[in-house]
Amino acid sequence: MKIAVVGCGQIADAHVMEALKIPQVNIVGVCDQNWHMADQLAVRFSLKPFTDLDVMLSETQPDVVHVTTPPLSHYAIAKKVLTYGCHLYLEKPFTAYLWEAIELGELARKKQRLLCVGHNQ
């Protein structure tokens, strides 16, 4: 399974460390609009950094994308990821507005993709 991570702040480390424990998982890229954030995560875990989500999706073709960005960015990123055809793991809070959550759920059903909100408990 190929995984990509969008958002390279502190919580992304936990996602990467957990994924690296699973033998069947390959982290194919990490993405952040800030090059320094993408690069620092990539260097520490020997991953490929990106600053453009479209480029990362196209080049790496992940099966699952973990979104660990600030909550107000979740909807736009999640919509793009689902439209591309990836399964999605979305950090909490899921979205800022109920209508965004409903729309993402409908898009996931239409694309026959799994959509999961991240909870640590």
Report on this model:
There is one protein chain. This protein has 121 residues and is α/β, with parallel strands linked by helices. Helix content is 45%, strand content 20%. It has 5 helices and 6 strands; from the N terminus they run E-H-E-H-E-H-E-H-E-H-E. The protein has helices spanning 10-20, 35-45, 53-60, 74-84, 98-111; strands spanning 2-6, 26-31, 49-50, 64-67, 87-90, 115-117. It has a 6-stranded parallel beta sheet with strand order 3-2-1-4-5-6, sandwiched between helices. Helix 1 links the parallel strand 1 and strand 2 (26-31). The longest helix has 14 residues, at 98-111.
What's the gist of this structure?
By secondary structure, the chain is of the alpha/beta class.
Coarse shape? globular
Rg of Cα set: 13 Å
Structural class: alpha/beta
Order of helices and strands: EHEHEHEHEHE
Number of helices: 5
**What's the rounded overall pLDDT mean?**
95
**Alpha carbon gap, first and last residue:** 24 Å
Sheet with most strands: 6 strands, parallel
Q: Give the fraction of residues assigned to helices.
A: 40-55%
Q: What's the number of extended β-strand segments? A: 6
Low-confidence stretches: none
Strand content: 15-25%
Which strand order does the major sheet show?
Answer: 3-2-1-4-5-6
